[in-house]
Write a structure and sequence with these properties.
mainly alpha, Arc Repressor Mutant, subunit A, two-stranded antiparallel ribbon, 5 helices, about 60% helix, about 10% strand, globular, DNA-binding transcription factor activity
């Protein structure tokens, strides 16, 4: 009897996180679209945010992400991405661990605290713009003219 509410809660969290992952993936796609249409490759770089988005998706999907793969997701030169990973690690937002299947590789993931902050961000963003992926998302509700 006690386990049932816990299971429902876990299902709700999984369902919410699945929506948040879709939102993170949509943000990444929109950024790629912006770069293709508007151009300015590198002018709009936000490697820390790009890293956090990629790591959020990988962490929630329980998919190990090697440091090199995370660097690609940052959309900046590898040395720049590595500096950002170092800084995010110092800030307690990401952690590095040895890959148990290949000791030559290092994995990077969000810390539990950062995972919670990312969940909180997506929950707040969903409240601000409507349900991610749902029919009731309304981006023009902030002003009567839709601007």
């Amino acid at each position: 009897m006690i386990r049932q509410p816990i299971m429902r809660s876990a299902i709700k969290v999984d369902s919410e996180r699945a929506a948040y992952v879709r939102a993170a993936q949509a943000i990444i796609r929109v950024r790629d679209l912006r770069d293709r249409i508007i151009g300015g490759h590198g002018q709009f770089a936000d490697p820390a945010w790009d890293l956090l988005l990629d790591l959020y998706v990988a962490t929630v999907e329980d998919r190990p992400l090697a440091v090199g793969d995370a660097c690609v997701g940052a959309r900046v030169p590898q040395t720049t991405a590595l500096r950002w990973i170092d800084q995010l690690e110092r800030l307690g937002k990401v952690k590095r661990t040895a890959d148990p299947s290949d000791r030559r590789r290092t994995l990077v993931s969000l810390t539990d605290a950062q995972l919670s902050l990312m969940d909180r961000f997506f929950r707040s963003a969903a409240d601000a713009v409507g349900s991610f992926g749902g029919d009731n998302a309304n981006f023009s509700s902030s002003s009567p003219n839709g601007r």
